[in-house]
Write a structure and sequence with these properties.
Oligomer: single chain
CATH superfamily: P-loop containing nucleotide triphosphate hydrolases
Order of helices and strands: EEEHEHHEHEHEHEEEE
Radius of gyration: 17 Å
Bound molecules: adenosine-5'-triphosphate, magnesium ion
Strand content: 25-35%
Largest sheet: 9 strands, mixed
Number of domains: 1
CATH architecture: 3-Layer(aba) Sandwich
Number of strands: 11
Helix content: 10-25%
Number of helices: 6
C-alpha cells in the first residue's frame, strides 16, 4: 500500500506515494527542507486519522510549531490533536530523557516497543544526531537500530544530516528509500531541489526536481528538473 507524503508534487516522483511499513532516510544540508518535509508527512498522517510519532532532540513541541508557523498546511492542528505524539529525547543541556519510553533496554528496544504498543503508523526521527546521546559507538550500533525499526509496522522517516552528497553512510544503504534535499550555489544564487536517490520497489528517475516554499509548505514541481 502507498500513502501520501503530504508534500504537494512529491508523490508524483514515487508512483503516487510511499510504500507503507518501510524506512526512508531524508538527507541534506542545513536549511534544505528536511524538517519541513517531515512535518508535512506527519500532518498528512494526522489528517488521515493515523497514529503518528515525532521524535526529536533539543527542541520543544512549541519551537517546532513556531518554525512551521509561517505555513498553512495545518501543522498546529495536527500537533495539538490526539493523533500526534511528540517526544523530545534530549534536553538543551544534553540530558537524555529516555524515561518517557519506559524503563527496559536502550533507545532501540524502547523506541520499537513504543511504536508497537501504541500502534504508531507514521514516525519521524529528527535526526540521527540524537543517536550519539544514546549509543557509545553509533557506527557500530546504527545497523541494529535501523534493522529493528524496519521490523515495525510503521512508515518511518529518519532524518540524516549530510553536507557532502557523495559521502553516503550505513543508513543510506540500509533504508528502503533515500530522499535528498539540495541547496546549492548556481550562478550566484542558491538553488533548491529534491532528489529521490533510491526507492526500493518503485520506478524512479533520480533526477533533481525544483522545490519551493510557499503557503502550503514545501512543494515539489515534478515537471521541472534542476541541472547541477
Ligand atoms: N514561510 C517560511 N516559514 C519558515 N521557513 C521558511 C519559509 N520559507 C522558507 N523557509 C526556509 O525553509 C528552510 C527549510 O528549513 P528546514 O527546517 O525544513 O530545513 P532542515 O533541512 O530541517 O534544516 P536543519 O538541518 O538545520 O534542521 C529554512 O531555512 C527556512 O528559512
Ligand atoms: Mg531540521
Amino acid at each position: 500500500m502507498r500513502i501520501s507524503s503530504g508534500v504537494p508534487g512529491f508523490d508524483d516522483l514515487v508512483e503516487g506515494g510511499l510504500l507503507t511499513d518501510r524506512l526512508y532516510v531524508v538527507s541534506g544540508p542545513p536549511g534544505s527542507g528536511k524538517t519541513t518535509f517531515c512535518s508535512q508527512f506527519i500532518t498528512r498522517g494526522a489528517k488521515e486519522g493515523e497514529t503518528c510519532l515525532y521524535v526529536t532532540m533539543h527542541e520543544t513541541k512549541e519551537e517546532l510549531m513556531q518554525d512551521m508557523a509561517g505555513y498553512e498546511f495545518g501543522f498546529d492542528r495536527a500537533m495539538q490533536s490526539d493523533a500526534v505524539q511528540f517526544l523530545n529525547l534530549v534536553t538543551e543541556n544534553g540530558k537524555r530523557t529516555i524515561t518517557q519510553f519506559g524503563s527496559e533496554g536502550g533507545l532501540t528496544n524502547r523506541l520499537v516497543a513504543y511504536i508497537r504498543q501504541n500502534d504508531i503508523q507514521r514516525v519521524v526521527i529528527d535526526s540521527t544526531m540524537l543517536l550519539q546521546h544514546f549509543m557509545q559507538d553509533v557506527d557500530a550500533e546504527i545497523t541494529g537500530f535501523l534493522s529493528a525499526l524496519k521490523q515495525t509496522d510503521a512508515t518511518i522517516l529518519l532524518i540524516s544530516e549530510m553536507t557532502d552528497p557523495s559521502s553516503y553512510s550505513d543508513e543510506h544503504y540500509l533504508a528502503h528509500g533515500v530522499v535528498f534535499f539540495h541547496n546549492f550555489l548556481d550562478g550566484g544564487s542558491m538553488t533548491r531541489g529534491v532528489q529521490v536517490i533510491k526507492m526500493r520497489g518503485t520506478a524512479i528517475d533520480c533526477d533533481i526536481r525544483e522545490i519551493s516554499f510557499g503557503d502550503r509548505g514545501l512543494q515539489v514541481d515534478p515537471e521541472t528538473k534542476v541541472d547541477t
